[in-house]
Design brief:
9 strands, about 180 residues, alpha/beta, about 40% helix, 5-stranded parallel beta sheet, Rossmann fold, 4-stranded mixed beta sheet
């Protein structure tokens, strides 16, 4: 059986990664999300094991120590990481595994050099539009939004490292573009 692709989708917080990935999963049953682990608190509507595995800082650090994570990073004071056992099992079954991870995590995945890796950077049309999106979510304080915007500036400087860059200025077009890149 042919190994599935591992597709890293990165971009600043608020650029639409979660929405694009959710639609990709609806469009193609051969796509599965590698559920990341995090120490941040769940947002309204999120469920443990669906959007993330929500764990304590101590549990996360234990996973680091035993080598259970393909990559991990500390983003705005919270750990995020990719459990490798589940991801490699899906890939071995021929599944296209989608990873929703930050720029630093993508660098770490590239260093781990898994087979059949593709990287896609999802960019906002502008920082002003990104600010509107983050504010519109109404899930973070103004201080957190400012931190995310500063981080977005840094992340945008890293987009050249990706195989593909897609500007999310039209959601339906963005979804179709990403889908066709993956299916190539």
């Amino acid at each position: 059986m042919k190994k599935g692709k591992i597709v890293v989708i990165s971009g600043p917080s608020g650029c639409g990664k979660g929405t694009v990935i959710a639609r990709l999963l609806e469009m193609d049953a051969s796509f599965k999300l590698s559920v990341s682990m995090t120490t941040r608190a769940p947002r309204p509507g999120e469920a443990n094991g669906r959007e993330y595995y929500f764990v304590s800082k101590e549990e996360f650090e234990k996973r680091i120590d035993i080598g259970d994570l393909l990559e991990y990073t500390n983003y705005n004071g919270n750990y995020y990481g990719t459990p490798k056992k589940e991801m490699y099992a899906m890939q071995a079954e021929g599944i296209t595994v989608l990873l929703d991870i930050e720029v630093e995590g993508a660098d770490n995945v590239r260093k781990a050099a898994p087979e059949n890796l593709m990287t896609i950077f999802l960019a906002p049309p502008s920082l002003d539009e990104l600010r509107k999106r983050l504010t519109g979510r109404a899930t973070e304080t103004a201080d957190v939004i400012e931190k995310r915007l500063m981080r977005a500036n840094e992340e945008l400087k890293e987009q050249h490292k990706y195989d593909h860059i897609v500007v999310n200025d039209d959601l339906e077009e963005t979804i179709q573009t990403v889908y066709h890149l993956i299916k190539e």
